[in-house]
Structures are given as structure tokens and as C-alpha cells.
Design a protein that fits this description.
There is one protein chain. With 403 residues, the chain is an all-alpha fold. The chain has a single domain, classed as Cytochrome c oxidase-like, subunit I domain (Cytochrome C Oxidase, Chain A, Up-down Bundle), CATH 1.20.210.10. The protein contains 15 helices and no strands. Helix 12 packs antiparallel against helix 13.
């Protein structure tokens, strides 16, 4: 047992990815139970201490991706900046706080408001521990060029404020706090983090695989992204949905430009690399849907796409990227060959199927509610993915190296 704990705690990505894989299943198991209660006669929805829709949104924005993001950043920050490794005490403490937060949130959601609120506070505490550890690396690292990490730090701060805002909404009931938690968590935290990681890593990984590859990482990309996500968030929170295209069109063009310049078509020859490129393409698709929605609203006041753009962004882009990036990191850091097998490839495309089903749920009416089918499809494809990669986290590296 001691040896297994040493293996499990040997690196931050092991512990954090383990928590993330649990969350990727638990979050959707609870939501599927909730949806079956809403849309079938099997049972009535489980009573919750706060609106289940906002609890689902909170878990998807903060409870699920945090583990994966922190596991990745606590591994890459020291590598990118040639800094000191994150100490065991920091990432272990953060892991226990985040796992404790997860337990409190689920238990409190179904039992008592104060337990649920305590879970949110624990999540904020775990986020703070990670953020502090990353800042220590950032400030003490010897390299001068830290522009990627600077963007990531601002986004992490926005996520920190988003969790705090959600807690304040729980306490005060003020809609502004919930609005900031939801919109800020997605557009000021998750999207900048994931886009920055893509900008840093997709060209790098592509250069390792694609012959005669030209790395494209223009310095103007991240500032443009920053202006666009801030502008989108302000308009969203102010109710200016019809005018979001002012910022979403440039962001969409940036994403499609990068997708083509990064070699989307050439990447398809390598499954593990293609997963990252296809995930990034989903971001462009999501922004295209946001723009269609905004322009239709501007000229007709019809909200024709519902939450389709949102789920193209969160499932199509975010979850696809998590599956692609975590698969790659887990294989590489377990000493295995960087090859996506058939199971990984099928599970990855299953996420796109899930996203498409969730989009269709906003556009078409069927006897079987497609929300339920999308949630079930999520579990059908991601349970085998977790079963494939979680054992790698719990086993020693196959090459005998530490970590």
C-alpha cells in the first residue's frame, strides 16, 4: 500500500488526473439521474438544496476541469520556465482539498445547503493552494519570457473570483454574482486557459510529428483573444447578446486561421495529434454558432440556437481537448509510446457524438429527449476511456523512470 501511494503521489498529474477522471464520470452520472427524473416517468427529480441547473453549470465549469488543468499546469510550469518542481506538500494538499470539495458538493447538494456551501469554500481553498504554488514557480523561474504563463495566471485569477462569486450568490441570492461565476468562469477562465495551452502546445506537438512543419505562434494571438473574451463577457452580462459578434467574429477568424496554419489536415495521419487539432476545430465551430445566434437576434429577435453554441464550446471543445491532452500526457509520463489506440480514438470521437446530440437537443424535438441520450452517450464513451487511462496513473512508469 505504501509503494502504491508513492507511485500515485509521485507527480501532480497522477493525483489530479485521477480526481478529474472520477469527476468526468460522477458529474454526468448525477446529471443523467436528474435528466431521467425530468423527462421520463421512471422517478421524480432528486431534491437539491439549490437549482440543479446552476449546480450542473458550476460542476462543469469548476468542479470537473480544475483537476485536469491543475494536473497539467503543475507539470508544465516548471518545464516551460525551467523553474523548481511543485513540492509534494503543495499538490497533495490541493488534491485533498479538491477531493474533499467534491464530496461535500455532491453530499450537500442532496442533503444540506451548508454542506454544499462548505464544498464550494473547499474548492476555492484548493484552487488557492494550486494558484499560490504556480505563482511561486512563476516568480522564481530564471527565464525572462513568461507571456504564456502571465496569461494563464490572469485566467486562473478569474476562475478564483468566479468560485468566490458563486459562493456569494449562494449566500446573498444576488443574480450578478451567479452571472459572473458562469460567464466569467467560461469566458475569462476556461477559454483563455485552453486557448493558451493550444497556442503553446499544438504547434510544438505538431512539429514533433509532421515532416517539414513550420511552427506558427504569432505574438498577436493572445492579446486579440484577451480583448475578445473580455468584450464577450461584458456584453453577455449586460444582456447585449445580439452584439456579441463584434468580438466573436474576430475570435472565430483567429481560431480558423490558426487551425489551418497549424496543419489540421496533415495532423489526421497521427491519431494522438489529430485529437488536439479536431478539438481546437470545435472551438471555431462553437464561435460560428455564437455568431449565427447573435446576428439572428440582431435582425429578428429570435433565439434560434438555444444553448447549442454553449455546448459546442464546453463539450465539443473543452471535453475533446481534455481527452486528447490527458491521453497524451498520461501516455508520455507513464513511459508508454505516444500512440492513440483504437479504443482511445473511438472514445475521442464519442465526445463529438455527444456534443452533436446535445446540439440537436436544442434544435429538434424527438419523443426521446436528446438531453438524456447525450448524457448517456457521454458515459458510454468516457467510461471506457477512464478504464483505459486510470490504471496508468496508478502504476509505476513502464520505463522505470521516476514521476
Amino acid at each position: 500500500m505504501i509503494i502504491r501511494w508513492k507511485i500515485f503521489s509521485a507527480a501532480p498529474h497522477r493525483m489530479m488526473f485521477f480526481g478529474g477522471m472520477l469527476q468526468i464520470l460522477l458529474t454526468m452520472v448525477w446529471w443523467l439521474i436528474e435528466l431521467l427524473g425530468r423527462y421520463t416517468h421512471w422517478w421524480t427529480p432528486l431534491p437539491t438544496v439549490t437549482a440543479s441547473t446552476w449546480a450542473h453549470a458550476f460542476l462543469m465549469l469548476y468542479g470537473l476541469p480544475a483537476f485536469f488543468i491543475f494536473g497539467f499546469l503543475m507539470t508544465t510550469y516548471p518545464r516551460w520556465m525551467k523553474g523548481q518542481m511543485i513540492p509534494y506538500q503543495s499538490y497533495a494538499l490541493a488534491f485533498f482539498l479538491l477531493i474533499g470539495a467534491t464530496l461535500f458538493i455532491y453530499i450537500g447538494l442532496l442533503t444540506h445547503f451548508f454542506i454544499f456551501a462548505a464544498g464550494v469554500v473547499l474548492l476555492l481553498a484548493g484552487w488557492s493552494v494550486v494558484f499560490y504554488a504556480l505563482l511561486q514557480v512563476y516568480f522564481h523561474a530564471p527565464v525572462k519570457d513568461k507571456h504564456y504563463e502571465s496569461v494563464l495566471n490572469v485566467a486562473l485569477l478569474a476562475g478564483h473570483l468566479g468560485i468566490l462569486a458563486y459562493f456569494l450568490w449562494l449566500v446573498t441570492g444576488q443574480w450578478f454574482f451567479l452571472s459572473f461565476a458562469l460567464h466569467g468562469g467560461l469566458w475569462l477562465c476556461l477559454l483563455p486557459i485552453l486557448m493558451t495551452v493550444c497556442h503553446r502546445m499544438i504547434p510544438f506537438f505538431s512539429s514533433c510529428v509532421i515532416p517539414n512543419y513550420h511552427v506558427v505562434q504569432p505574438a498577436w494571438s493572445l492579446p486579440v483573444m484577451g480583448v475578445c473574451v473580455i468584450g464577450h463577457t461584458i456584453l453577455e452580462m449586460q444582456g447585449g447578446l445580439a452584439w456579441r459578434f463584434i468580438f466573436d467574429v474576430p475570435l472565430m477568424l483567429l481560431v480558423f486561421h490558426h487551425s489551418l496554419r497549424w496543419g489540421l489536415w496533415r495532423s489526421l495521419k497521427n491519431r494522438l495529434l489529430a485529437m488536439l487539432h479536431v478539438a481546437f476545430l470545435w472551438l471555431g465551430i462553437a464561435l460560428l454558432l455564437y455568431n449565427v445566434q447573435s446576428l439572428v437576434l440582431l435582425f429578428s429577435d429570435h433565439f434560434i440556437l438555444g444553448k447549442a453554441p454553449l455546448h459546442a464550446l464546453t463539450i465539443g471543445f473543452m471535453i475533446s481537448l481534455i481527452v486528447g491532452m490527458v491521453s497524451r500526457v498520461t501516455l508520455g509520463h507513464s513511459g508508454r509510446a505516444l500512440v492513440a489506440g483504437r479504443l482511445t480514438w473511438i472514445c475521442f470521437w464519442g465526445v463529438s457524438v455527444t456534443a452533436l446530440l446535445r446540439l440537436c437537443a436544442e434544435l429538434f424535438m424527438f419523443k426521446l429527449n436528446l438531453n438524456v441520450l447525450a448524457a448517456a452517450t457521454w458515459l458510454i464513451f468516457l467510461l471506457p476511456w477512464v478504464s483505459r487511462y486510470m490504471p496508468m496513473i496508478l502504476q509505476a512508469r513502464t520505463d522505470g523512470k521516476p514521476g
